[in-house]
Design brief:
CATH superfamily of the largest domain: Type I PLP-dependent aspartate aminotransferase-like (Major domain)
Number of strands: 15
Strand order of the largest sheet: 1-9-8-5-4-2-3
Shape: globular
Mean pLDDT: 98
Number of domains: 2
Distance between the termini: 21 Å
Radius of gyration: 20 Å
Low-confidence stretches: none
Number of helices: 12
CATH class of the largest domain: Alpha Beta
Bound molecules: pyridoxal-5'-phosphate
Strand content: 15-25%
Largest sheet: 7 strands, mixed
CATH topology of the largest domain: Aspartate Aminotransferase, domain 2
Length: about 350
């Protein structure tokens, strides 16, 4: 079976994790801070706050920005549900925004048009690692706080700088399907001292300088995870370079044959996910089954979040999101994948579609 995704875990990672286990200091040791400093330096942010998942990063960010009942937050409708769920969990209303036909991210114009008097923040997603149009979005939204959901985008670059550098807070994920993994894990990046302090307080039972100042949970990262993350960080350039090579092979094969995600001029994707939108006339789930029969593990590309059970009653109609969610397929892509395996996936998909 050619797997959809596979983290690249080598001996360095195993040694790093074993050293933490041997030390007995599994949590609240020095490694989390070291991991934070390394990622902050890489992206050029003042602060990094490591947490237990990308979802926690989004939830704590909304809380730190004091977004709650009565507030509305712009959010692209095409994604894994975490960003929209985080807004709901905060008690605020999600303002779903459709995505661009080619880039599969919400455009600056779409975000600006969806904004109203109650809008308190915008979540901007670099979907599948494809950078959002950061500069235009900044210009379109003015002083409105931007939360960059860069869960998929470590190693990607906007035209003007690294993903993870946009807006008030950027959130990363280290789930095994992401570019680097810590098992579960996430991180908030910010240049704002006050927001960073709130995030650190919120991840640790609401404690600030030894006092419990608000009721909050435990969203800390373990030292086991941080050790894994630090070892993974050494591979980042190699991982991203290989992903780009593999994605280029897919692009060459499918260009003009199927809709693919395009990257804004001057920006660079890390290809966290390689998606294709199937042409009309094919049943997507049947295609996935037939690929599996041929030894290719492909998956659903993404979701139209406003159509999920968790948003029952939403009347939003977002045709591009709905089209991509209904017809999108994620193809296998991981750094250890061989070129011949890409050829095999291409051949299998063509066979399934055209016989
Ligand atoms: C765009 C986006 N945001 C947030 C998340 C949540 O990350 P995690 O799985 O680490 O909670 C994901 C995970 O798939 C994602 O794709």
């Amino acid at each position: 079976m050619i797997r959809l995704a596979k983290p690249w875990i080598g001996e360095d990672e195993q040694r790093a994790v074993a050293a933490v286990l041997e030390s007995g200091q599994l949590v609240q040791g020095a490694l989390v801070e070291r991991f934070e400093q390394a990622v902050a330096a890489l992206i050029g942010r003042r602060h990094a706050v490591a947490v237990s998942s990308g979802t926690s990063a989004l939830q704590l960010t909304l809380k730190a920005l004091q977004i709650g009942p009565g507030d509305e937050v712009l959010c692209p409708a095409l994604s894994w549900p975490s960003p929209a769920h985080a807004v709901r969990v905060a008690g605020a209303k999600v303002q779903f925004v459709d995505v661009d036909q080619d880039e599969w991210n919400s455009s600056a114009e779409a975000l600006r048009e969806a904004r109203n008097g109650n809008t308190r923040a915008a979540i901007v997603i670099d979907q599948f690692g494809n950078p959002a149009r950061a500069e235009q979005i900044h210009a379109a939204l003015g002083a409105l706080p931007i939360i960059e959901d860069a869960a998929c985008a470590l190693g990607s670059r906007f035209a003007g700088g690294p993903c993870g550098s946009l807006g008030k807070v950027s959130c990363l994920s280290f789930h095994p399907r992401k570019i680097l993994t810590t098992g579960e894990g996430g991180m908030c990046l910010t240049d704002d001292d006050d927001v960073a302090e709130k995030l650190r307080m919120l991840r640790n039972h609401g404690q600030l300088r030894g006092e419990f100042v608000v009721a909050a949970g435990n969203s800390r990262m373990t030292d086991i995870a941080a050790a894994l993350g630090l070892a993974q960080l050494q591979r980042l350039d190699e991982i991203v370079a290989r992903r780009r090579e593999l994605a280029a092979l897919y692009r060459e094969a499918f260009d003009g044959e199927m809709d693919l995600q395009s990257t804004p001029a001057g920006a660079e994707s890390n290809y966290q996910t390689f998606g294709v939108v199937l042409p009309q006339g094919h049943d997507r789930n049947a295609v996935l089954e037939k690929l599996a029969e041929r030894g290719v593990e492909a998956g659903l590309l993404s979701f139209a979040i406003h159509k999920l059970g968790s948003f029952t009653g939403s009347e939003a109609s977002l045709p591009i999101t709905e089209h991509i969610a209904a017809r999108g397929v994620a193809l296998p892509l991981y750094p250890q994948m061989r070129n011949a395996e890409v050829d095999e996936v291409v051949r299998s998909l063509r066979e399934v579609l055209h016989g």
